[in-house]
UniProtKB/TrEMBL annotation:
The keyword Isomerase applies. This is Pseudouridine synthase. Its EC number is 5.4.99.-. Pfam families: PseudoU_synth_2 (PF00849).
Length: 190
C-alpha cells in the first residue's frame, strides 16, 4: 500500500488526466495507480494525500471519519473577536450549513513558501492570517466561510490532514514523499 504526501502547487489540477494544457498531478507524480484522497481547488495550495488503497482513500476523504483538516488562510482585512466567533459557529452558506470549527488568528508561518505568482495586495487594505480546522470539506467551503464574515480569502493553503502536517513534513510545492498510514493518527509513524 502506498500513501503519498504531496505539496500541491498553486494552479495545479487535482487530477491525473490532461485538461486544456493546464498542469495536473501527472506533471509531478509518476507512481502508478494512486488517487487523491480528497481534493484542492486549482487556486488552493498545500497538503494532498494520495493512495492506491480505496478504503484508506475513503477513510481520509469522507467526513464521517472525522479526519481534521487545517487550512492556513490569508484574508483581506483584520478579523475581530466577532468575526472569529462567527467563523467557528455554524454558517448557513445557502446550499448547506457548516459544522462548528476552530478558527484562530495566527502570524504568517515562517516555514510557508512564497506563492508564485505573489498575492496582489492593495496598499490601503491590511491582510491577516487565520488557521481554520474543519471536520468537513465541501467545495470552496473555507473561501465561502471567510467571505460570509467579510474577510475575503486571498490565499488558501491546506497545512494538515489528521496528524500529518507540512510544518512537520516540510516539502516545497511540487515535492512529495511516502508516509505511513499510522502517521495520519500520531504524526510519527511509530
Amino acid at each position: 500500500m502506498s500513501l503519498i504526501l504531496f505539496n500541491k502547487p498553486f494552479q495545479v489540477l487535482c487530477q491525473f488526466s490532461a485538461q486544456d494544457g493546464r498542469p495536473t498531478l501527472a506533471d509531478y507524480l509518476h507512481i502508478p495507480n494512486i488517487y487523491p484522497a480528497g481534493r484542492l481547488d486549482a487556486d488552493s495550495e498545500g497538503l494532498l494525500l494520495l493512495t492506491d488503497d480505496g478504503k484508506l482513500q475513503h477513510d481520509i476523504a469522507h467526513p464521517d471519519h472525522k479526519q481534521a483538516k487545517t487550512y492556513l488562510v490569508q484574508v483581506e482585512g483584520v478579523p475581530d473577536a466577532d468575526s472569529l466567533a462567527r467563523l467557528q459557529a455554524p454558517i448557513n452558506l445557502g446550499d448547506f450549513t457548516t459544522l462548528p470549527c476552530k478558527a484562530v488568528r495566527i502570524a504568517e508561518p515562517e516555514w510557508l513558501w512564497p506563492r508564485n505568482p505573489p498575492i496582489r495586495q492593495r496598499a490601503d487594505q491590511p491582510t491577516s492570517w487565520l488557521a481554520i480546522t474543519l471536520q468537513e470539506g465541501k467545495n470552496r467551503q473555507v473561501r465561502r466561510m471567510t467571505a460570509a464574515v467579510g474577510l475575503p480569502t486571498l490565499r488558501l493553503v491546506r497545512s494538515a490532514i489528521g496528524a500529518i502536517s507540512l510544518a512537520s513534513h516540510p516539502l516545497m510545492p511540487g515535492e512529495w514523499r511516502a508516509v505511513t498510514p499510522a502517521e495520519l493518527v500520531n504524526g510519527s509513524g511509530q
